[in-house]
Every structure is written in C-alpha cells, then in structure tokens.
Amino acid sequence: MYESIHITDWFYIYFVENNGMAFGIEWINKLLLTLFRLVAIIVIAWYIQRVVNQTPRVKIGYIICLSLIFAGATGNIIDSVFYGEIFTQSTPHEMAHWVPVGEGYGTWLHGKVVDMFYFPIVDTYLPEWLPVWGGQHFIFFSPIFNFADAAISTGIIALLLFYRSYIGGDETKREQLQSLHNR
User: I want to staple 26 with a disulfide (CB 3.0 to 4.6 A). Which of 20, 54, 91, 118 is the partner?
Assistant: First the structure.
C-alpha cells in the first residue's frame, strides 16, 4: 500500500502515480497522450494570447478560466515529460524517489502524473433494501487527483457556468450581454 496522510475522515494526501488522464482514465498510448497534451497547451497559449489582445471586449474572468486550464495542463505535462527520467519506479511497498537525470524508470515523454488529493466525502455501505446495489460499498467522490487537475476542472466548470456565450462563438449574443453589463 502506498503511503498516505490521513487529514480528516474525508480528506487524505495519498500518493498515486497516474499513467493516464484525469481520474485515472487511460488513453491510447502514453507517447500519444503526452504529444496531445503538448499540442493542447500550445493551442491554449495561442488562444489566451489572442483573447488578451481583445481585453476591452473580453471579461477578465474568462481569461482567468482559460489560464487555470492552461496552468493545470502545463503542470500535468511537466510531470508526464520529466517524471520518468528523474524518479524510480514506485512499488506497492516503496514510493518513488529522486535519482539523477536518465536513471529513472522511463524515458522523456513517458512519465506518469502524480496525484495526491483524495476526498472520500461519504464512505459507507448502501442499505440492504436498495434494489440491485443493496449492501454494496459506496464511496462518494472517489477519484484521486492533483492540483493541476483541480485547476483544469475549476476552469472548465467556471467557463460552462459563467462564460457559455464566449464558448459558442456567438459574437452578437456576447456583444448584447456586454452592452447590458456596461449600462
């Protein structure tokens, strides 16, 4: 079992190496995932630069949401590019430790992303009388994630909640909303 720090009944710091995407989702191939992440942060950086040049017409909150997504994606890409080169392979009995560059478990672009926040807010057994799932163990919010994942998720949720008109590209609707806001 990996080392964990029990903060409260519903919050742990828990060492997990994630070989895939957010919440442990594995995707095609590690090299393709890393290259996809690199392209994504380049495109996001280009888009942020473009949006910043339109700042009088674009709300700062929108830029902050994009920046959260960019910062989180950059953090995860740093892990996946370098982690395999500078850390040993962890085992269920020993956590990875830092080694000189090139002595790690993997090569450039093939590293894992370290996740550490675990919030099992509700950890219980479902009542026996419940059809199909009765008596089964249930954990509400079981993903283990890192700060970068939290930044990406927060940025996306805020975009969807507060800046949906910017996402759809509906320039007329956006200008109408902006003029209403300026009155």
Answer: 20
Out of 9, 79, 149, 170, pick the active-site residue: 149
Name the range with the highest mean pLDDT among 3-7, 55-59, 96-100.
96-100
* Parallel/antiparallel/unpaired status of strands 113-118 and 144-145: antiparallel
pTM (two decimals): 0.79
Whether residue 79 lies in the annotated active site: no
Is residue 149 part of the annotated active site? The answer reads yes
Strands of the chain, DSSP E: 4-8, 11-18, 113-118, 122-125, 137-140, 144-145
Torsion region of 24: left, alpha or beta (phi above 0 gives left; psi -120 to 50 gives alpha): left
CA dihedral sign, ordered 154, 155, 156, 160: positive
- pLDDT tens, residue by residue, 72-96: 999 988 988 888 899 998 887 788 8
Q: Indicate which residue of 9, 79, 115, 170 is catalytic.
A: 115
Question: What digits encode the pLDDT tens for the residues 125-183?
Answer: 999 999 999 999 999 988 889 999 999 999 999 999 999 888 766 555 555 555 555 55
Instruction: Tell me if 112 sits within 8 A of 17, measured CB to CB.
Output: yes
Torsion of CA 16, 20, 21, 23, to 10 degrees: -40
* Torsion angle of the four alpha carbons 32, 37, 40, 41, in this order, in degrees rounded to the nearest 10: -150
Burial (CB count <10 Å: 0-12, 13-18, 19+), residue 12:
middle
